[in-house]
Description:
By secondary structure, the protein is an alpha/beta fold. Helix content is 42%, strand content 20%.
Amino acid sequence: MLERLRIFDTTLRDGEQAPGCTMTPSEKLSVARKLAQLGVDIIEAGFPAASPGDWQAVHAIAAEVGAGADAPVIAGLARCNAFDLDQAASAIAPAAHRRLHTFIATSDLHIHEKLRSTRGAVLARITEMVGHARQLCDDVEFSPEDATRSDRDFLFEALHAAINAGATTLNIPDTVGYATPEEYFELIAAVTRDVVGTRKVVVSTHCHDDLGLAVANTLAGVKAGARQVECTVNGLGERAGNAALEEVVMALSVRPQQYFVHSNIVTREIGAASRLVARCTGVRVPPNKAVVGANAFAHESGIHQDGVLKNRRTYEILNAEHLGLEGARLILGKHSGRNAFRRHLAALGHELDEAEFEAVFNRFKEVADRKKVLTDREIEAIIEGETSRASAYYALDLVQVSCGTHAIATATVRLHGPDGRPLVAAAEGDGPVDAVCHAINDCVGEVADLVEFNVDAAAEGINAVGGVTVRLREKVASQSIAGDDAERRRVSTGFAVHTDIIVAAAEAYVSAVNGLVRARRNDAVEVPA
Ligand code: KIV
Ligand code: ZN
């Protein structure tokens, strides 16, 4: 008999906290929709007190994705203080099922060096604030941050205080990815066995990947009795990331006799969820990534190819089709019609409105004219470019460059500004792309640092389409509404695809600038007290 394991997805909170993974509110909403289709039990939608934009995004997800009796639980993160908890409670209010997730550090290192506090004060805060959370919400999760480096007796005192104050889930974070699977197994077993009252609550894992052990530790925790796992799509998260949802879920599904649990995840949605998160964050999936990497089902050596052709199971323990990684094997090119194209987009998991579909279809035809046949990756790159263009403040109208071995690279750029006015600038640079970026900066007056520039052939071959990813970080820190001194400089990712790499670079840069402008306007919204 397999017991039920709850999947708590924190892609939109811990995942989004990773450097450069910031998503716009509409990107967060589309990721949340996909997480609901994927069948996750709890969506941690964000950290509402961090900024008005975060509050808005959590509220929008709670109102849309959290609506209805079958909707997933929508969780909001809060530090152990009344301001954070009140912000989180108001942000998740529209959801049918709500959870407040509150945390405070319990290791001496964090208590003394970070909080400048004492064990006694931390215990008092847990009692008071978990109690406050329970006044606001029936479902309260408590996390002792840095649990795996905390003194065992004090950790258990803290967990006991949280249960007494009304916590319904106890999460045991390996905040810095320090534990080994044996240690984490032992800790979860001890929590479920020795903390008075744990039988009334769900014990949860939360593992980071600093030593590459996040998934192994999570599975060890499940073996020891945890009945909730916290994870992220593609393993995104602070520093080296969190336990990857797709890896944990597939390990449980392929080896049920090891873990004796089952989840509600719809595995066919894993491929689409992985691609969507990669597109929205601009963080691509490495080819050798387990389960969802491009090479996960590729066989190059003759012996392997021979084996797979005779019986797939000789070298594959997962089925690409069951993970939604195959896509419809349809060749799409310049002769493809509207209906075939629309059906193909639906098979890839894209729901576009009419205006977006028209823009994507027109661009597809334009590229297909030069390239004959387009791959799914190229088509998805076009969708990304066109759908973000729809909500753009600046639109690229013209780009022209002059460069070469004996020439100073110069670029002329013309954009349409927010009021439709043309903005024209010319600039020199170290190369044609640098010159284009300078010219765009002159047009928009944006003050941002370029933190990543990546060119990628969106398919193999001499006529491949170039995909360019640009990541910008604003120069001036934005204000946190929690009033803390944490510096939050927004990062925005732009992606574009074109047969001309310079045009792709210009479009990606403009798209990243649009992302920054959009994020600033969203953060300027009012948040209820
Ligand atoms: O890693 C961590 O400790 C966290 C907590 C907020 C749960 O993300
Ligand atoms: Zn974490």
